[in-house]
Design goal:
Structural class: mainly alpha
Strand order of the largest sheet: 1-3-2
Helix content: over 70%
Number of helices: 6
């Protein structure tokens, strides 16, 4: 394959990738509609559900967003009663963010809905294709 063919192939691959990503984002937003929650808030609920209470700075690291943006996400979730802020027992000057019972319930419901969504989206792949795609995406992510 010469340079022009490689460039055309890579462009085509990138276009396909972004088309799939757009489709997944659209489906994800539809999946979140019943809870009137945005994807950023859903990601924060998922991180807190997986890792438990944490400081805002740790949540920002997990979400790969700026601490200021994390404060806005937590403010929005707190207004809805999905998270609460508590003093960190290890350092009373610091604050921990924790899921409320409602946040835990909604986080679990979202996780179940997203699992069902992923099963529908990727369900037509053969087990071998699913395994290959998983391996490829992990390689690209890392």
């Amino acid at each position: 394959m010469d340079a022009d063919e490689r460039e055309a192939h890579e462009e085509s691959l990138a276009e396909l990738f972004w088309a799939v990503a757009r489709r997944l984002r659209h489906q994800s937003r539809q999946t979140l509609e019943p809870w009137e929650i945005n994807p950023g808030h859903a990601r924060a609920l998922a991180v807190l559900g997986r890792h438990g209470p944490m400081r805002l700075s740790a949540l920002a690291d997990h979400l790969h967003i700026a601490p200021r943006s994390t404060t806005e996400v937590v403010d929005g979730l707190e207004e809805r009663g999905l998270v609460a802020r508590h003093p960190d027992p290890a350092d009373r000057r610091a604050t921990l963010v924790t899921l409320t019972d409602e946040g835990t319930r909604i986080g679990a419901a979202i996780r179940a809905a997203r699992t069902a969504e992923a099963d529908r989206f990727f369900g037509h792949l053969s087990p071998a294709d699913h395994a290959h795609l998983t391996r490829i995406l992990r390689t690209l992510r890392d």
